[in-house]
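Thread: Newbie trying to understand structure tokens

Hi all, I'm a second-year student working on a class project, and my supervisor (Dr. K.) asked me to get a predicted structure for one chain before our next meeting. I've only ever worked with sequences, so writing a 3D structure as a token string is new to me. If someone could post the tokens and maybe explain what I'm looking at, I'd be very grateful. Here's the chain:
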Amino acid sequence: AEAAYVLDLNSSTPLYKRNENRRLMPASTTKIMTAIIALENYPLDKVITITQEDASIGQTMKLVRGEQISVESLLYGTLVGSGNDAALALALAYPQTGYSGFVNAMNAKAQELHLSNTHFSNVSGVETPEHYSSAVDLARLAKYALSNPTFKQMASTKSITLSDTLGKTKHYLTNTNQLLNQVDGMYGVKTGWTENAGECLITAVERDGNHIITVVLNSQNRFQDSAVLIDWIFNSFNWEEPKLL
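---
Reply by user tm_fold:
Sure, no problem. This is what the structure looks like when written as tokens:
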């Protein structure tokens, strides 16, 4: 991976870093911030009607025009299925200012969290020169997101079946993070890929009460890179209580 970073979650101590401040395309790891803005501005039971504008490119949860679906379901579609259409639907529903206001809220939140190498121009990670982040910023963003129990539950969901409010349209989602089924203690967080961003992955892992967040950006094999990095961390570090003299 071009950039990598590992953060001990409990102490906020960096355990590994390489090119951690380099500004790179974050691809669909962007949707962590999309989910945060939605969670902090909408009730989960708010119902959104899918419009013609919600037709989206790339990875989708296959939303149907005219479908009425809850914010909760759209968040699962965003985090589990990495649906660009779900992220778009959440943004278009932003009160008064719509899509542009939602993106502005994402950037305001980035400033609030002191993500100095991050700027968003869209909600799904589409490549633009004004859309970038860094490994260290994404680790800090993931840490903030995981403090929300709803986000944590969604990000760790391996698969789920959703429906519209009338139960007519079904959506079958499998988490794009393959390591949820392979790496002991993993409970998130988000994948990403575009041609120029390369393979991206943010993970959260707990073993023996010790939590770490890993980030790899512009990888050729995000799952292998992350799995090797996780094993190396837990084999190379000990967590000990400080002894009082």
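A couple of things are worth pointing out once you decode it. The first helix runs from residue 31 to 41. The CA atoms of residues 139 and 213 lie 6 Å apart. Feel free to ask follow-ups in this thread.
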